[in-house]
Amino acid sequence: MNRILVVDDESQLLRALRINLRARAYEVETALDGAAALAAVARRPPDVVVLDLGLPGISGIEVITGLRGWTRVPIIVLSGRAEAADKVEALDAGADDYVTKPFNMDELLARIRAALRHHTADAPARITFGDHTVDLSAHLVTRRTPTPAGTSGEPAAHLTPTEWKILTVLARHPGALVESQRLLTEVWGPRYRTETDHLRFHIAQLRRKLEPDPAHPRHLLTEVGLGYRYQP
Fold first, then answer.
1. CATH code for 3-121?
2. CA distances from 134 to 1, 101, 123, 169, 200 (A)
3. d(Cα 65, Cα 90) in Å, to the nearest integer?
4. Record: fold of 126-230
5. 71 or 52, which is more confident?
6. Phi, psi for residue 211 in degrees, rounded to 5
7. Domain range list for the chain
8. Which of 7, 117, 181, 213 is deepest in the core (most CB within 10 A)?
9. 30 pairs with which residues across the strands?
10. What does the alpha-carbon distance between residue 87 and residue 92 come to, in Å, rounded to a whole number?
11. DSSP letter string over 62-77?
């Protein structure tokens, strides 16, 4: 189930959006101001953020800028500001889309679906680890050739939600270095950007489950002092 974070200081609008989105099988979290929005994303990253610009305290533009410092989560601005300059400012700050109030619910839902499709397309649907095929969209690891204990195509390993998140981030950048701080903030949030031991443990678990020889990894490579890379 996809999670949507809706950020607006109008409680009635939040309630209406919560009801409509839940009716379409989305999991919904709400925030009334910018500080609460940043905290919610850091605590549990959503799949899409729907964000008003006119927020008390931290503005919507500041929220966009703050999020873009560490996450690629799709951001749809939902604002009563209809001037072209406001749209340009929000998009330049890192927003993915802009919907003007008053709005049509069907249009907003279509924008959310488009944002989810685009975000999912950032990572390949499937990647390989030796004899394993990893389906990132279905969250399924299968073996490509039969073993004495089973047949090809059967589930071969179980990954935790955290391991799936790490693998998805690395898969978006095949062959490229992903810094430890970036991995930590995208998976756990900015408060964890120095917890390198935590990350090292989960990488070791992924190698144990997926690498043909975990002691000599071919696909999940460490760049000492820098980060990790997924080598296809």
1. 3.40.50.2300
2. 20, 42, 12, 14, 21
3. 9
4. Arc Repressor Mutant, subunit A (1.10.10)
5. 52
6. -75, 140
7. 3-121, 126-230
8. 7
9. 6
10. 8
11. HHHHHHHTT----EEE
